[in-house]
Amino acid sequence: MRRAIRAWLVGVLALFMLAGCQHVDSEAYRPSSQQLLAPAQRAQLERAWQAYAAGNYSLAMQRVDSLLAAVEVAEAYLLKGRIYLDANAFELANAAFQKARQLDPYLRGIYFQQGHSAFLQGAYKKALDLYLEELALIQSSPPDVQQFYREADQAALPVIYRQAGRAFFLLDSLEAARRFYMKSLALDSLASETYRWLAELEAQEGHLQKALELAEKALQKAPGDLENIYTFGRLLMQNGYLEDAVHFLQLVVERQPTHRGANYNLGRALMQLGQREAGQFFLERARQIQQLSGKIAQARLNAYQSQRARPWQELAALFIQAGQYEEARKALDVAIFWAPDNLALQNDRANLALLLGDTLEAVQRYYQLLQRDSTLADVWLNLGVVLAEQKQYEAARRAWLQALRYRPHDDTLRRYLAELERRRGS
């Protein structure tokens, strides 16, 4: 959910920047970035948003603070609040959002982000009120403001309706939730998450066949989404389509072996099909995963209540243990935000890029680390491994020789170099 909201905000920024390149009537509304910032400063703000979108919170904050030292603009405070919000520093985030509203009461996204802050803290009624404030702002703004934000508002409205629907759902106002989900779908019929949440609502009301149909629509809109596959598989099981359920739940377990719900429901489906041994295997694995999930829940609570790197690093380690690499990435990005000079964290983040399958990012991060400290033997070693896998054998050899300078008695390094020479000679 955070990723979708981040993508929406970055999209809104792009619309701001495009509007800034167009001719605007001198009497018409313009956000403070267009009134106060020179082109180079607007470019700096855009680069800050790009760093934020990439999860580089430290760099994004550096760019924002540098800009704010020269001139105060609402959009910069909005971004500052978003960075703090991703780091779960709720008071700092809300202070930045309040400052943004003081500077520009018509700027889009402020009420929504404050609502999201409340939502993340479990204050669903407060979150709902703030989501509705964002809707009211869009609908009641003066004509020139509405004209300026026309495209941004079109993109934002289905997101706001969907999130308000989610808040209604969690407040047990199911009919209101359904109404807002339908409003969202009327504006964006391609949003798979809305169909999935609507399926969850119908299932809670006992309308299992209707829920299954909606889950199938969600899967059609985004067939690769793991939660869409899981929800469809779970509802197939609940509707009695056991063999089909096994197929889809196995797809989830293959991609994420530590998905507790998929293991549990797969075990149940297999038991009902008479495959007791296989069913017991997955039910037992679900029980073991639940124990790890309990540790993750406690670590998440510790991290969310902290503004230090260590709890976030510990949370990331548990996510990696659970195979939830994308969640681990987010946790490590926050840890690095709180301790940007911690090179061990930076190395962990580079190694995680490999687990995520992004060798290009991993190599870039290794080189950035070595620019800061060329004596890091582990980094040279890991860099060499990646380069060797890419068949860049000479570059890998140089990397391992560098590692050997700082770890001359390392048998692993010598073994790697010997194997490399064997490959080059064959």
Automatic annotation (TrEMBL):
Keywords: Repeat, TPR repeat. It comes from the Bacteria. TPR repeats lie at residues 74-107, 192-225, 309-342, 377-410. The keyword Repeat applies. It holds the Pfam family TPR_19. PANTHER family: TETRATRICOPEPTIDE REPEAT PROTEIN 6, UDP-N-ACETYLGLUCOSAMINE--PEPTIDE N-ACETYLGLUCOSAMINYLTRANSFERASE SPINDLY-RELATED. This is Tetratricopeptide TPR_2 repeat protein. It comes from Rhodothermus marinus (strain ATCC 43812 / DSM 4252 / R-10).
